[in-house]
Amino acid sequence: MDIVDFRGVSNQHELEKRFVEIAEQLMSRYEIELRHRPDRPRLQISALELYYYNEKVWKDNSCHFKKFHADVQSRPWCWYVHHDANRYPTRIGIDITVGAGDETIGASLLVRAVNEFDGPGYALNTMLFGPHSGGAKRNWAYKDTMDATFGNKSAKDFLKKLNATSAVSIDGPLGLVPSRGVAPKDFFIGRRIGLGRSEAVHKNAHLRLTTFKAAKDLSGDRTLVELDKWRLARGAD
After folding, report:
1. pLDDT (tens digit per residue) in 127-154
2. Within a domain: residue 2?
3. Which residues span the domain enclosing 146?
4. Cβ(224)–Cβ(207) below 8 Å
5. Residue 4: inside a domain
């Protein structure tokens, strides 16, 4: 994939700028194809959050790279299933890794929303069960699920096998593919959601990009601003 990475980032300003460049390209040009589903549906990525760790520049412990030894975050274009799916289905999420092969730096994009399903659990379960099967609601059942499309294995087993595999492989069960739809026209940027005890500098960074308008934003975050206005406020880079 011809998309830049985070090599050379030296401060928050550069990190936010690079994040926007990468996330906007992904959300505009690519969709997620569910190849394990019989109808192979596609999902639009509608919100991404960056989790980045660099010992010298950005020691953000909300990134799993150091905290949970998520080495896959140092690699480019892989699926990272949170906690290797060991906490599924109560604590779930999936990222697209955007590392550059540097084993000291971790970077991945949390798929926070697909289509109209907003929230890491909703997004992942929609990727598992499809957009028309009630999959987005399964996050709250707090039980694993057997499904024929997983080879009669559990969703947890499916996710364990998916973890650390290529997100751009042509034969993987989930894959990033060039979009066939109309690219979103509107983007909004704001703070990430639910960081808890993270340091203020990390909590307040603009590392969340979404196509949801602020008035309809399902997360309840009212800090979102239009991306064009945000760029204008920052001045020319």
Report:
1. 998 887 554 454 445 466 777 777 778 8
2. no
3. 12-234
4. no
5. no
Report yes or no on 91 lying in a domain.
yes
Contacts of 161 (CB under 8 A, 6+ apart): none
Please check whether residue 224 is in contact with residue 210, taking contact to mean a CB–CB distance below 8 angstroms: yes
> Is residue 6 included in any domain, yes or no?
no
The tokens for 98 are 């955007």
Asked if 127 and 34 touch (Cβ cutoff 8 Å), the reply is yes
What CA–CA distance (Å, rounded) separates 47 from 32?
A: 13
| pLDDT band of 67, cuts 50, 70, 90 | confident
Which amino acid is located at 102 in the chain?
Answer: D
Q: What's the domain count of the chain? A: 1
Write the CATH number for 178. Answer: 3.10.300
pLDDT at residue 11, as a whole number: 96
